[in-house]
């Protein structure tokens, strides 16, 4: 899988060759939510010119959990592994990003991760209280972000588009369909993955505008 606009390391691509194959060595934490991996690596190399990424930094530039996951995805893609970021929630009900790759489900991320689509479908079935996850509108937004991430538009979690916002408006049946497809694709359903890609390409309501997610 080629790099996306967001995972592309730019002129620092060779730095990713020094990283170990296991992405769990990159713990996320408080830090800037770098928009692109190239931005993160620019800042790192400005502070630590020429230092391989495998060497510890006394003063790392820091990165959010999303940016750290995206760095892991960039390294895996650099090695020819078709990895992706996916969006959901942790056991503590906070939004979370994990890295997935063929041959397994969750490869890197917090314990107790629940996919955004699973939360949405459980709320729609009446078996889950969405207020624990910030409300139904927040869960809907997480589903739309997961759709973008599944299609390699790994935008910062602060970005919004389409029906996103504090109010639960728009076609909820559409969100139902997307949530079910996202869960199925997460479980390696190739038919669901193809349908997601088709919907993402054709439905402007669920796709971020190109000023937010330029084509790589």
Automatic annotation (TrEMBL):
Residues 1-31, 45-64 are annotated as: Disordered. Residues 45-58 have a biased composition (Basic and acidic residues). This is Uncharacterized protein. It comes from Asanoa siamensis.
């Amino acid at each position: 899988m080629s790099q996306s606009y967001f995972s592309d390391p730019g002129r620092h691509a060779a730095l990713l060759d020094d990283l170990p194959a296991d992405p769990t060595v990159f713990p996320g934490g408080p830090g800037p939510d770098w928009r692109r991996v190239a931005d993160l690596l620019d800042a790192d190399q400005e502070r630590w010119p020429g230092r391989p990424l495998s060497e510890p930094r006394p003063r790392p530039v820091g990165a959010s959990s999303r940016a750290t996951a995206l760095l892991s995805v960039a390294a895996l893609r650099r090695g020819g592994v078709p990895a992706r970021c996916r969006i959901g929630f942790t056991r503590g009900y906070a939004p979370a990003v994990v890295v997935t790759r063929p041959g397994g489900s969750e490869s890197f991320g917090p314990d107790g991760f629940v996919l955004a689509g699973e939360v949405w479908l459980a709320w729609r079935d009446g078996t889950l209280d969405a207020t624990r996850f910030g409300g139904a509108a927040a869960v809907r937004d997480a589903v739309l972000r997961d759709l973008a991430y599944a299609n390699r538009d790994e935008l910062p979690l602060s970005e919004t588009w389409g029906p996103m916002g504090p109010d639960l408006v728009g076609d909820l049946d559409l969100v139902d369909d997307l949530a079910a497809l996202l869960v199925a694709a997460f479980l390696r359903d190739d038919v669901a993955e193809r349908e997601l890609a088709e919907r993402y390409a054709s439905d402007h309501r669920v796709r971020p505008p190109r000023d937010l997610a330029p084509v790589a």
